[in-house]
Amino acid sequence: MCAAVYVLSTVTGYVLTSALLLKCPNLLHRRKRETFLSRHISHRGGAGENLENTMTAFKHAVDLGTDMLELDCHLTKDEQVVVSHDTNLQRVCGVEADISSMTYAELPPYLCKLGVTFQKECFCEGGEDKRIPLLRDVFDAFPNTPINIDIKVNNNTLIKKVSELVVKYDRENLTVWGNSSNQIVKKCYKENPQIPVLFSLPRVLQLLGLFYTGLLPFVPLKEQFLEIPMPSIITKLQDPSRLTRSQRFVAWLLVYVLSFYQEHFGFFVLKGYSAQN
Length: 277
Ligand SMILES: *[C@@H]1O[C@H](CO)[C@@H](O)[C@H](O)[C@H]1NC(C)=O
Ligand SMILES: *[C@@H]1O[C@H](CO)[C@@H](O)[C@H](O)[C@H]1NC(C)=O
Ligand SMILES: *[C@@H]1O[C@H](CO)[C@@H](O)[C@H](O)[C@H]1NC(C)=O
Prior knowledge:
Number of domains: 1
Largest sheet: 5 strands, mixed
Number of helices: 9
Strand content: 5-15%
Helix content: 25-40%
Radius of gyration: 21 Å
CATH topology: TIM Barrel
Structural class: alpha/beta
Shape: globular
Distance between the termini: 55 Å
Bound molecules: 2-acetamido-2-deoxy-beta-D-glucopyranose
């Protein structure tokens, strides 16, 4: 009897404290500065409307009033930070070589027509602009647009160079960077803790675990943004009639869990991306 009362009061105390702190996180944690708010994010600059990750795509998206550009970074052989998604140039340029094996001057142009990876049977035909841009070109052209930078290779030089560029262009308050790999995010944070980082995939899972056990309010978080594939992408990539019942259930569950998060946290980047990310 006595033990039951003890257990019950401990559990009640924990649940109440956890609920209170979840409601009022500022009691334990300092509020993170919110330097920009993005409702509309252009993935690879809007890969369905222009060739992905080109200056033309970014310009079009910004002209339309997008709140944020999303792009991907690699390092060339001569250590230039370029904006492109794949490590290998086969899909986008038709050339069997890695970006890291060529100097910036040697990089081939994009093909005229690229598949939009996260949309089934959708291709985008580009115009004149087929050049892989430098990250510096994007920073020069859009000094006030928030940018989400995906670090595509676990390369210390790349991380260092991106950080240097962000600092040089005074964009620490306009940037969020990271990768689904926690190793890369940890390196980014270590390189420059002033630049907001994304939750990596293991950290997203940890976040969910902490939330559902009531531990979340007690744990400090270094990350500021979530970058999670939109579950609806699953249904876009596949014919919905061919989805199994369990696939449909998982998609539904993810939408449910994620919309719950969107309601409860201000810092939310929800984006769809390709199956091969
Ligand atoms: C990082 O990239 C540069 C340039 O492509 C390359 O020379 C270097 O070996 C890479 N470092 C690692 C650890 O992969
Ligand atoms: C970022 O914004 C904060 C407050 O909004 C400001 O104190 C800080 O100086 C800014 N940092 C840079 C590098 O502009
Ligand atoms: C994370 O980095 C890996 C290489 O380490 C890359 O294959 C992957 O596409 C990256 N993911 C994201 C979301 O940037």
